[in-house]
Write a structure and sequence with these properties.
This protein is of the alpha/beta class and about 280 residues long. The protein contains 13 helices and eleven strands. Strands 1, 2, 3, 4, 5, 6, 7, 8, 9, 10 and 11 form an eleven-stranded parallel sheet that branches. Pfam families: Bac_luciferase.
Length: about 280
């Protein structure tokens, strides 16, 4: 694939996307996200099948839809490849397949994730899922390099702009770097932490792939313990008014990200918060 063709795939994600669990967004909310100008809807939660994605694609016209991520341990690569092709036939060029190795604590079969992801990609190759339509969950250097070699790029989760800078150095240029970042719209720090701390603590501060990455970034055991220090939670869950959140999210792009997937935390529809964030000045 030429550099210009790869760049076109990267540009299709847009500067900002919206991240939510499978089933998080109704068809109407999906349409509203597209109308607001976000480039991608990311759907997470390690689904066994891609069926729920069809509802989002049906409800929208052009927005990119990606998994963040399909877990290789609970899905069959050949079956996922067949589902990819079905979606691509019905919605040409709009769906990108994000895959990853999940968490060792959650998967009894979890062994040698780097090799297992490679084997999963081998099947996707055999089933002709294009490399430029694949994205890998990646935090550490080996998986980041694999995402550059065998996919369009990387989708790091629960990271900071400091990690984004390291990831860009590892990936090199011309490779998609699309980190996720959690946000809470509100200027009351204690209230924002009350919303942001629980979904960070459980499960992520008890999963060693995430805690190891945080330690590589300089966070300590004390920061990670007891639900996370205020400083750690504030770094992983941006809070403030819409303009300050937009500025903090934009720091990922300054550090080298092509695209940032914004996950709004809290109950209720995220549409008003997403509208305020994308319309705020930087």
């Amino acid at each position: 694939m030429t550099d210009s063709a790869k760049a076109a795939h990267i540009q299709r994600f847009g500067r900002y996307g919206v991240w939510g669990w499978f089933g998080r967004f109704s068809p109407e909310e999906s349409r509203q996200i597209e109308e607001l100008g976000y480039g991608t809807i990311w759907l997470g939660g390690s689904p066994r099948h891609l069926g729920p994605i069809r509802k989002v694609l049906d409800a929208t016209e052009n927005i990119t839809v990606a998994t963040g991520i399909v877990n290789i341990w609970n899905t069959d690569a050949a079956a996922i490849a067949d589902e990819f092709h079905e979606l691509d036939q019905d919605f040409p060029g709009r769906f990108y397949l994000g895959i990853g190795a999940g968490h060792p604590e959650a998967t009894a079969e979890y062994t040698k994730p780097y090799e297992a992801v490679g084997q999963y990609l081998d099947v996707l190759d055999e089933k002709e899922v294009p490399r430029e339509r694949r994205v890998l969950a990646a935090l550490g250097p080996k998986m980041l390099r694999l995402s550059a070699d065998r996919a369009l790029g990387a989708h790091p989760y629960l990271t900071t702009p400091a990690h984004t800078a390291i990831a860009r150095d590892t990936l090199g240029e011309g490779v998609l770097l699309a980190p996720e970042h959690k946000v809470v719209l509100g200027t009351d720090a204690e209230a924002a932490r009350a919303v942001g701390r629980p979904p960070v603590d459980q499960p992520y501060l008890h999963l060693r792939n995430y805690t190891s990455n945080l330690k590589r970034l300089g966070w300590t055991d004390d920061d990670i313990a007891n639900g996370g220090s205020d400083a750690l939670i504030d770094a992983l869950v941006v809070h403030g008014d819409a303009a300050s959140i937009r500025e903090r999210v934009e720091a990922h792009r300054t550090a080298g990200a092509d695209h940032v997937a914004i996950q709004v935390l809290g109950d209720g529809s995220p549409i008003d918060q997403l509208a305020a964030i994308i319309s705020a000045g930087v």
